[in-house]
Amino acid sequence: MPQDVPSRSIGDLTYLDISKRLQASSILCLPIGSIEQHGPHLPLNTDIVLAEEFTRRIIARWGDTYDLWQLPTQAISLAREHEWAAGTLSLSVKGLTELIHDLGREIARSLPARNLAVINGHGGNRGILEALAQDLRADFKLNVCILHPTTWADLHAAAKTPEIHGGKNETSMMLATAPHLVRVDEIKKLQAASGADAVRATILDQSVTWPWTTNEKAIADMGIIGDAKSASTEFGKQLLEKITDAAGGVFKQLLERQQLLRG
Fold first, then answer.
1. Domain around 118
2. Are 44 and 37 in contact (CB under 8 A)?
3. Model confidence over 217-234: pLDDT tens digits?
4. What is the pTM of this model?
5. I need a labelling partner for 28 at 20 to 30 A (CA). Which of 90, 149, 198, 249 fits?
6. Distance of alpha carbon 261 from its chain centroid, rounded?
């Protein structure tokens, strides 16, 4: 890495740089994506592209303030709700648990930083990551938080069409981030959004959990749960800016929690 090009990517450092540039109060950012269907208009790696874009923007904005460092992306995670579609790759619950546990052990062993912020690009990871955060803290003494940026992106939670997967929000952010990967012509072929009540009952109701998949006709159209036809580049930029702004408060709280844990 040229000395005149600063980097906040762990992979760009040498082993001699680690002890010079990282300390216990540094925050490691781990992007986690997924390889899964996102309808006919978005690529399989949508969650990877967005997780890395969230992380890039967050570090560009807050990296110097909170001493943020980017870890290599974990590209394959838990996506069994999309296994009906060709190209989807999913680990098992056991496989992802062991992977994250091993990563936590290696982070604690090889790096002086004791703060870990997981930047989760795939909503299907939420439950397992919440449980694993407890393990990472208890087993490896890591001060952990899990960021779910797509939740911040939901500016219209009471909208007629809930935005769950491949709809207005994700499509807009992909148009703003990687427009060359969006098959715009395919968006026109999607049916009008429907099944909002079924989506709320099956996915969003916090009082009961149901296993569901994105090929269930009652809640999805061509793998999409949302309104991709309403997507726009400008809306995607607004969402990305909102996510970037919101992350600062999380890192401040993470460092405050580190101080409390030390006490």
1. 10-251
2. yes
3. 999 999 999 999 999 999
4. 0.94
5. 90
6. 26
How far is 90 from 162, CA to CA, in rounded Å?
Answer: 24
The verdict on residue 260 lying in a domain is: no
- Do residues 44 and 87 touch, judged by C-beta distance below 8 A? yes
Decide if 77 is inside a domain. yes
Structural Rg of the chain based on CA atoms: 19
Total structural domains within the chain: 1
What is the C-alpha to C-alpha distance for residues 137 and 259, in angstroms, rounded to an integer? 14
Tell me which of 13-17, 172-176, 178-182, 200-204 is least confident. Answer: 200-204
Question: Cα 194 to chain center, whole Å?
Answer: 26
Three-state DSSP string of the chain: CCCCCCCCEHHHCCHHHHHHHCCCCCEEEEEECCECCECCCECCCHHHHHHHHHHHHHHHHHHHHHCEEECCCECCCCCHHHCCCCCCECCCHHHHHHHHHHHHHHHHHHCCCCEEEEEECCHHHHHHHHHHHHHHHHHHCCEEEEECHHHHCCCCCCCCCCCCECCHHHHHHHHHHCHHHCCHHHHCCCCCCCCHHHHHHHHHCCCCCCCCCCCCCCCCECCEECCHHHCCHHHHHHHHHHHHHHHHHHHHHHHHHHHHHHC
Residue 155 pLDDT greater than 60, yes or no: no
Residue at 1 is within a domain: no
First-residue to last-residue Cα distance in the chain: 38
Residues whose CB falls within 8 Å of the CB of residue 86, separated by 6 or more in sequence, listed in order? 37
Give the CATH number for residue 83: 3.40.50.10310
The dihedral built from the CA positions of residue 21, 24, 29 and 32, taken in this order, carries a sign that is positive
Nearest residue to 141 via CA among 179, 175, 113: 113
Mean pLDDT of 193-202: 85
